[in-house]
Design goal:
Length: 140
């Protein structure tokens, strides 16, 4: 019997290194998206929308906001996605005018988002500085 020669395997592409701000921010947005979807259900159930707007728009808004949060979590390598994350935090805070408990959600997740982006950026800067120092000759 003859066997066909094996094709050479391509080397696996190395994974892109993710920074702390990207990792922490994506975790916060992913968890917050679940809470935002449930908040949309609360708005629907309580009929908290102004008169003239059908209550099912609460579900639509909660779902749309949750999907945008998940998509943003995947794009946090870009600076504009960090800014969009801050805007999403503001939208959640505005939902507190419809259901006051969303103010608490905005406070908690807004604080976690602030920590993830601010402290994560400082960790990324420190790690980049340490990596640059390790690559530079020190006179030995």
């Amino acid at each position: 019997m003859t066997t066909a020669p094996e094709e050479p395997r391509r080397a696996a592409r190395p994974r892109r290194a993710r920074g702390a701000a990207e990792s922490l921010g994506s975790i916060v947005l992913a968890f917050e998206s679940v809470i935002v979807f449930l908040g949309g259900l609360v708005i629907f159930g309580l009929g908290a929308l102004p008169t003239g707007i059908p209550s099912w728009w609460g579900i639509v808004a909660g779902t749309l906001l949750a999907v945008v949060m998940i998509l943003t979590a995947g794009m946090l390598r870009h600076r504009w996605a960090i800014v969009l994350g801050w805007l999403l935090q503001a939208v959640v805070a505005l939902g507190g005018f419809l259901v006051p408990s969303l103010f608490l959600v905005a406070l908690i997740f807004g604080g976690m988002w602030a920590y993830a982006t601010i402290k994560g950026a400082s960790l990324d800067a420190r790690n980049a500085r340490l990596a640059a120092e390790a690559d530079s000759p020190n006179g030995d």
